[in-house]
Amino acid sequence: MTPTVAKIFFVCCVVGWWLIRFPHERKVRKNAIKTDQRDRTEILLLGISLTGLGIIPIVYVFTGFPAFAERAFVPVGAWFGIATGLFSLWLFWRTHKELGRNWSVSLEVRDKHELITGGVYRYVRHPMYSAFFLWAVAQFLLLPNWAAGLSGVVGFGTLYLFRVGREEKLMLDAFGEQYRTYMERTARIVPWVH
Length: 194
Ligand code: SAH
Prior knowledge:
Blueprint: H1 3-28, E1 33-36, H2 40-63, H3 75-99, E2 108-110, H4 127-142, H5 146-175, H6 177-185
Antiparallel strand pairs: 1-2
Helix pairs in contact: 1-3, 2-5, 3-4, 4-5, 5-6
C-alpha cells in the first residue's frame, strides 16, 4: 500500500459516487416537487459539503496542495480506508435504490411522496448521511494530509448539523404520526445509538 494507490482508490470512489448519483438525478426530475425548502441556507450548506468532500480532496490529489499540511502515510489506516470507502459506496447505492423517486439533493417533499421505512431505512432514518460520514472517514484514512483528510468531516458535519433537524420537521409536517413512530424506533445515523 502506497500513498499513490490510496489516492487512486479515492478518485475511483469519487467516480463511483457519480455513477450512482447521476442517473438517479435524471430519473427523479420527472417526479414533481410539492414542498421546496431549498433556500439560501440549504444552497450554502450544499456548497460547504461539496467543497469538503469533493473539491478540496480532489485538488489535493492532483496538485498536492496544501503541502504544508502533509502528514505521515499510515498503510494500515489506508487499508481500513479502502474497506470504509467500499462500504460507504454500497450504502450510498442502497439508499438511492430504496429512496427511489422520493430522493432529492435538498429538502423537498415530492408529489406522491412515500415514506420509506424498510431496507437500510429500518436501522437508521438517515442512512444516506451515514454513508457520507463513512466517506469522510475513508477520506481521512486514505489521504495523508490534515487539510484534505479532515475537510470531509468538517464540510459534511456542517451540512448535517444544520440540516437534520429541519429535515425531520419537514417529514413530520408531511407524514405526522407515521414519521413520529418511525422516529421512535430508529436512530439517526448509527444503528441502535439513539
Ligand atoms: N436523510 C435521508 C434522506 C436524504 S435525501 C437519508 O440520509 O437517507 C433528502 C430527502 O429525502 C428529503 O428531502 C426528504 O424529503 C426525503 N426523505 C428523508 N427521509 C425519508 C424517508 N424515510 N422516506 C422518504 N423520503 C425521505
